């Protein structure tokens, strides 16, 4: 990763998994980022909605709310909630506000910026990609609850194969081009299309494996998938 801000898309499933908050993990994640800050690094953490968003979106569908834009707004609200929680984990090290417009650079001396969802039609993966563009980053990390990107969904296809390195063009053939609110994909198709245009490199790291996360942030080496 380059100098300046390191952009990380943090999946909501890392912050609040289906089983609920893991306080021990959150403390360890906070401590890892603070350790990196003390070594001179700066971070933009773009926080996803995860289970919080999906639960509210499912409830909305159950009461007849089916408009995609409305469902996206519900998901965005969940990302803002999660991001406000994460911002407070870092206290005075974090910029005072949760950033929701990834196209506008904020002026701050703080080493950590916390961001959330912006507009309907995409996920926080797209917001992270736009953050990378705004802050002139050539690479970013995506932290989620998967270790690799696979050729297909390994939960439904036992023959799915791990992918070490792949082009954006080939990756987009796997995930398709359409965004659906609450979709559980390794990376938002809109984000993938934008990243390809920007020639951005994205490293996929299993976010709940903090040893891997530290290896990635410290040395740029990790067990996971790289898309470029």
From TrEMBL:
Keyword Cytoplasm: yes
Location(s) in or outside the cell: Cytoplasm
SUPFAM superfamilies cross-referenced by the UniProt entry: Carbamate kinase-like
Keyword Cytoplasm: yes
GO function term, MF aspect, one: ATP binding
Family (UniProt): Belongs to the UMP kinase family.
Protein name: Uridylate kinase
Source organism per UniProt: Candidatus Magasanikbacteria bacterium RIFCSPHIGHO2_02_FULL_45_10
